[in-house]
Amino acid sequence: MNRVFKALSDPTRRRVLELLRQRPMTAGELSDQFTVSKPTMSAHFAVLREADLVDADKQGATITYRLKLSVLEDAILGFSSAFGIGTEPTLRKETQS
Q: Which residue numbers delimit the HTH arsR-type domain (predicted)?
């Protein structure tokens, strides 16, 4: 889960995930959306792959990325349950005097 949070900590990587929610995209298509260098984008893609948030399919010189939504959902569920988010609060019984 630490790798997921590391990946999500950067706004560029979060934007990549937002773009991939729309459709699979090539590394070039994604890189064109940002003003950073291609090597910097490559490093961002590596972090996302390491966190298992994206799949990368290489065909020739083209890499196409796809969002792995199930991994992201699992991370969010794990995070929310760790903090009791989304669970019903335990009600205390009132004691009668």
A: 1-87
* Tens digits of residue pLDDT in 14-66: 999 999 999 999 999 999 999 999 999 999 999 999 999 999 999 999 999 99
Q: For 46-63, what is the HEC assignment?
A: HHHHHCCCEEEEEECCEE
Alpha helices in the chain (DSSP H): 2-8, 11-22, 27-31, 38-50, 69-82
Domain with residues 2-82, CATH architecture: Orthogonal Bundle (1.10)
Residues near 6 by Cβ (< 8 Å), separated by ≥ 6? 47, 51
Q: Are 88 and 41 in contact (CB under 8 A)?
A: no
Considering the entire predicted model, what is its pTM?
0.76
